[in-house]
Each structure stands twice: as C-alpha cells, then as structure tokens.
Amino acid sequence: MSEGNILLKVENVGKQFEGNRVLKDVNFTLKKGEILGLVGENGAGKSTLMKILFGMNVIQETGGYEGNIYLDGEKINFKSPLEALNSGIGMVHQEFSLIPGFTAAENILLNVEKTKPNVISKIFGKRLETIDEKEMKKSAQIAIETLGVDIDPDTLISEMPVGHKQFIEIAREIDREKVKLLVLDEPTAVLTESEAEILLKAMRKLADSGVSIIFISHRLNEIISICDKLVVLRDGVVIVERPTKGVEIRQIAEWMVGRSVEGEKSVHIKNEEDFDDKDIILEVKNLWVDMPGETVRDVNFKVRRGEIFGIGGLAGQGKLGIPNGIMGLFPSGGEVTFNDKNLALNNTYNALKSGLAFVSEDRRGVGLLLDEPIDMNIAFNAMQVHDKFIKKLLGGLIKWCDNKAIKECAEKYIKELDIKCTSEKQKARQLSGGNQQKVCLAKAFALEPTLLFVSEPTRGIDVGAKKLVLDALRRYNEENNTTIIMVSSELEELRSICDRIAIVSEGKVAGILSAKASVTDFGLLMSGIDKLEEEGESNEQN
Amino acid sequence: MNRINQFIKSFGWPRIIIALFLISLFIAGPFFGVSTDMSLNDVFVRFGMNAILVLSMVPMIQSGCGLNFGIPVGLVAGLIGAVMSLEFKLTGPAGILAAFLIAIIAATIFGYFYGKLLNRVKGDEMIIATYVGFSFIFFMNMMWIVLPFKNPSSVQGFKGTGLRVTISVQEYWYHIISDFLKIKFTEHFTFPTGMFIFFALMSFIVWAFFRTKIGAAITAVGSNPEYARAAGIDVDKMRVISVIFSTILAAIGIIVYQQSFGFIQMFNAPLSFVFPSVAAVLLGGASVNKASIANVIIGTILFQGILTMTPSVINSAISIDVSEVIRIIVSNGMIVYALTRKAR
C-alpha cells in the first residue's frame, strides 16, 4: 500500500431527492487493497452514496448528483450498473438478488457462464455455446472456497439458509476477474457471529490480493477488527475520515449518533427473586417445527410469568422455528401449555386470540403491509383478532373500521416509539429499516399481548434504533408485566436484556443459562460440545 | 411546472392521451354533423350500462386474485336471473328484483366454486380465470338449449324449446332503472338518472365493504398474504369471499345492462364483456393488485367515451369504419400496458 496509490476518490458529492437533501459535500479517498468501513445511522445516506457510485437508475431518474467521483484517476459517471460492473465495481446489496430456482454455481456464474463450442455455436456465434457444467462447478467451487465456507455448488438457492445465500452473493461478485472495488452493504447482518468471522477473513484475503473493499456494517466491532480506514456519515455529511487504528467502538457510536451513547449494557432491575418458579406462563414439550432451514426437532422449556426469556444459537439450528411454530406459521407438533391451558398448534388466529403476539424476523415479508399506511399496519392485527377499533353497526352485523380510533392509536405509538415519518398515513415501504421495525413492534403492542415473541428485533438496524427498540421492549415488559420471548443471534444483545437465555443447537435446547453466566458457557453450548459427547455415548449404547 | 409534472405523474400518460383524444372528438363532432347532445346521451347511457361490470373487478383485484378475466361466471349468473324472472312472467319492478335475487343466489354458488378453484392456482389466477370464463360459457350454451324454459318470448320460435339468442325484455322490465327520475334535456339527450343512482349505490356498497373488518382483511390478503396469515386470517376464505362479491356484482351489472339495452343476449354474448371491462378498469388507473372506485369511474368514462365517439365522429369524417379497430387497439393495448407494469 504505497502512498498515492489511490483507487477511488469521492469529491464534494451531494444528492437531493425532490428537495430532500440526503448527501452534502461528501469527500473521501480509498487506496488499492484497502478496506474502508462506512458507518452511519439508518438514513444517514450510506445506501444513497453507494447507489451513486454504482450508477443505479434511481439516481439518474431523480436528477443525478453533484460533485465528482474518480476511479483509478478517471472521472466516472455511470449511467447504469452495467457500466459500473464493466469498470470493475462489484456490489452486494442488502436485499438478495439471487434466482431461487438456480443452483449456487449457476447463480455465481450468471451471464458469465463457462461454455464450450458446439456445432450450432460455430455457425451462429458464441451465445449458443453449450454450458460446460464441470467448468462451472469448478469455477464456483473456487469462488466459494476463497470465502472459506463449505457450500455445495449444486445446492439450490431456495434451499439455503440466509447466511449461505449471502456468501453466494459475495462469491458472485468476486468471481468477476476484473473486480477492483467491492461494495458490501450490510453483508453480515444476516450472518451469525461465526459466519461473519469467516466472511471477515475472506475480505482480508481479498484485500491482500489487491481488491479494495467498501464495507458497510452496523456491527462496529467488525469495522474495528477489519477495516484500515473509517468514514462516518451523519445526516449526509462526513463526520470523520481516519484510519481505524486506535479508535474505540464507543467513539464511533458517538460520531454516528452525534451524542454520547450510554453503555450497551444498562442495568436490568429484575432479580431472580422477583420470579416465582411455579408461576409458569408457557410450557413447551417435545415441540417440532418444520420450518425450512430452521428445523426444530425436540424442544422443551418453561417460561416464568413476567420474565424476558432469550433464545439464542447459531443460524440454521432452529431458534427461529420455535416462535414461528408456536404461532402456527409453519407446520408443528408437540405440546404447548399457555396460561395453564393447552394451546392448539397450527392455528395462528387461536394463538393470537389467546394473548400471544409475534414480531417476525422477516420484517418486509411477513411483518408489514408495505403498500399500506402506517396506521393500518399498526391497527390491523388488533382489529382482526380482538375486534378493537371497530364500531358495530346494525347490532353487530356490520363491523365498521373506526378510522378515528385507528389514527389515535397510530399517533400514540408513533410518539411513544419515536417512529420517524411524515404522518401516520405514510406508506410503510418508505420508512427506514429501524422505523419499520418500530411499526412491527407497535403492531404487536397494539394487541396488548400477555406473551410476546420477538424474533431478531435488531437485525439490520443501526445502533441508535437498536437501543430504542430494546428499550421499548424492556419498558413494555416492566410496565405491563408482559412476558417476552426474544429470539436473536446476537448473544450480547440477549445478555443485555434477558433474564434467562436458552441456547438452541441442532433443533434442541442445548441448555438454559442465566444471563449472568459467562460468555464461555454460552459459547460451549452453541458449539454443541456437551451435545457431541452425549451423542457419542448414545451411539455407543446403540 | 412542478405541480403540472406531479399531476401528470399521478394521473398517468395513457389516461391523459386518451382523455385529450376524447375531448378532441367532442370538439370535432359538430363539424362532421354529429350532434353533441346525441353524443353526450350515448356516453352517459353507456357509462350507466357498463360501470357496474367494471366495478365488479375491484373486489378481486383488492384480494390479490388479479383482474377478473372470469367475469363470464358472474354474467351467466345474471343471465340465469334474467331468464328465470321472465319465466315467472314477472313485470316491472317485481320482475327486475326477482332477476336480481335469483342472479345473486346463482352468483353466490358459482362464485364459491370459482373462488375455490382460484385458490388452487395461486399466482396464475388470470390465465386460469380466462379459461374458466370460456369453458363456463360453452357449458352453459348447452344448458340454455336443454333446460326446460317455457315462456314463449324466451324460447326459440320455431321449435318451442331452448332459449333464443336474444330475448327482448320490452314487455317485462325494459328501462325500469334507466327511466327512474330521468331528465330530458333535449330531444336526443335524456339523462338516465336511475342508472347513475344505482351505480352510486353499488359503489357505496363496495366502498363501505372495504371499510369493514372483513374488507380490511381482504385488502391485507391482497397486499401481503404472509402478513395476513401471521395475523391469523384465513387467506383462502377471504379470497373466496372477494370472488363471490365480484361475481355477484357482475351478475347485477349485466341485468342493469340488459334493462337499458332492452335485450337479454344469450349464448356467446358474455365473451364480449371480458376485455372491455378489464381494459376499462386498467385505463382508469388500477393496477393488477390495487383498484379504487375512482379508477372505475374514470376508466369507464374514458373507455366508453372512446367507444361511442369514434364510430360516429371518425366514420363521418373519413367514411371508413375504423371504430372496431380503435376499440381493439385501446382495450387490448391497455391490458398489455397494465400487465407489463405488474412487476413494479
């Protein structure tokens, strides 16, 4: 990394969307083989900046941008992502752009397939050459191996857990031979900690081979551990541009939000004595759930009234299947006792009616009506399940939506949870990730549940919003004595809010520990070391 | 300028072009000897005749079942209602009410099975609906011949069994709705107030329906089925309800059409209502998964306006019958345009 070896130079870049300024005077440089960490709260302008760099159509359609961008000393202004690709910029988006029905190899080599000539192609040209399956597989295998993961190139994308999909997406970008600059937008958001580590190692390897990387992440420890350089954006302005060396996480967080952030771990006031071990609100026995990629095999646990119960574990081990199964979103079986009553499984309406609520991990897919206004999103479940916000006309024959009550309810939650929006009539699609998550929470709160399932509540949202979401959950737990079962792949997050944490491994509960237990204990449970020994024994018995 | 741009964006180019074309036809009309009052009369009458058929698209679009290419299912139910009412020799308001009642019962039954079928082909509703519409019409063509209808004015004159191709309602309930509170402006322009009141009533029912609990559930199903399922809603049931609702509206719509037209058109006639109704609601600005009453009104005015004005004005101007050509270009072009916008 010699001086003056600059690959990318961004100069005075600005952008406004219909009078709404999102970027202003952005300047930074990136050298060859360097990893640049780009951080900022949701809505700080990171994604817009990357869209400009990648020549996405939205930018042109909304009137282009201000300032100059130089790649390898040449001024660039891409009209389409295709041009960006050709000049060696690869980008991995937050949303997957993979074809579910194709195999990993086919996706990685899409449109750059390895081919061999045949009779027809000799006459009609290269586009009719036969696809060379063997070469494809080999090439895909190499790309996957560069990343240091073990995925069969013949697996269909639709059958993969999200973590693997993310790797395939990245493998596709690095497979292009000319790639000089790789933009990774939140690649680790859907990965577990161990998977993320593999990815970080792979990034380092790539950088050492001369590829520059722009890495966007909300996980600040990743930024610190891997990036050479740090750029912090806040409200569209570059706050800090400096080498990562010697920077602390808290300092970055402060730059991001512009105020000093309290320690992630705030004191949880509840003590073990507050709970009555006999007052069990939910008991799960021999639960199995058939959720693709998150199969639950045989889960048993008890949750005490009023506690926050965490469920952790690695991706694909089945922790997400537990709430989805109990809520009836995926086929399940076993015995679930809720409030001393047997809860019929595979019946979502019944589950909601008896006082359960669920914030799904799939915010955009399951959690929201993206094209409906916020108020409808918040009030809908309560209206459908508990007949709230309903005016009964003609003696209950007509159940009329009470728009005024819906509006009031929405306004209340917008204020309480600090949802940033123009009004309660704004469409959910237009909100940022963090605010969408708050709408999902409001939807669950509006049901006034006795037990609330929250699945990956902070996935893909920034530090500030994360804290607000966790605080809202804790406050709700304390004010209403609502039992909360929180599923998350971030152990630190679980430990900061939960009373007890169950670790799920291979579809079974590996163990339940107090949140105060040491990280090593959790780590052992996650890696399933106890398990292996047990299985070994049982195998011998067989 | 900004406001104009915004208006164009929200209203859409296709609508603006067609509206301008329609206005220019109205302006050009008098120069070619087409009287404006007669044109207006035609446009309003045809709006009243077709608006409810277009309205019948809305529930199914809202529930995510797509455009109702299977509208013949509802039309056939309407035909059954109409010929049954004639069979009982009911005249005047009693006659048309009986027709409505029987049609609604038939539409409910047909709609139920039609909806069940569409639930099995999620994702391909529109293609399957087209086939259902076609095959149902041809099945009923046999039924019209076989069923033992007796009324001399509806059976075929030469053999006394089987229904005629067109059955006159002149002596039964001709213009019962059209002439209710009608306003005569000039010799050639009578405003069919009754049909507009009736359309307003139907629109109100649809509007109100989507403001009830069940209507909100249907909207959610159309917007995001997974979300609806996670809210404990029986997605399939909501879809069936919306299909039944659409089918009933189509059945009512065709009877309103018949009382204004004066004839019940049997056999293959329902086929000619499919594309015009679909095209009208799309022209009004509806997409494959969102439609409103305003879309219905704008679309029907524009579509029926073009249909009535082109033959009279253009034919008198250039003495060649291009009206059919224009109708086909507009209706099919509109459908293609809307379907290409599906994947937003």
UniProtKB/TrEMBL annotation, chain A:
Residues 8-260, 275-531 form the ABC transporter domain. It comes from the Bacteria. Keywords: ATP-binding, Nucleotide-binding. The keyword ATP-binding applies. Pfam families: ABC_tran. GO terms for molecular function: ATP binding; ATP hydrolysis activity. SUPFAM superfamilies: P-loop containing nucleoside triphosphate hydrolases (SSF52540). This is Monosaccharide ABC transporter ATP-binding protein, CUT2 family. It comes from Caloramator quimbayensis. The lineage of its organism: Bacteria, Bacillati, Bacillota, Clostridia, Eubacteriales.
TrEMBL record, chain B:
GO terms for molecular function: transmembrane transporter activity. Pfam families: BPD_transp_2. GO terms for cellular component: plasma membrane. Keywords: Cell membrane, Membrane, Transmembrane, Transmembrane helix. It is found in: Cell membrane. It is a multi-pass membrane protein. The chain crosses the membrane at residues 12-32, 44-62, 69-88, 94-114, 126-147, 189-210, 238-257, 263-286, 293-314, 320-339. InterPro entries: ABC_transp_permease. The keyword Transmembrane helix applies. PANTHER family: ABC TRANSPORTER PERMEASE PROTEIN YPHD-RELATED-RELATED, SUGAR ABC TRANSPORTER PERMEASE PROTEIN. This is Monosaccharide ABC transporter membrane protein, CUT2 family.
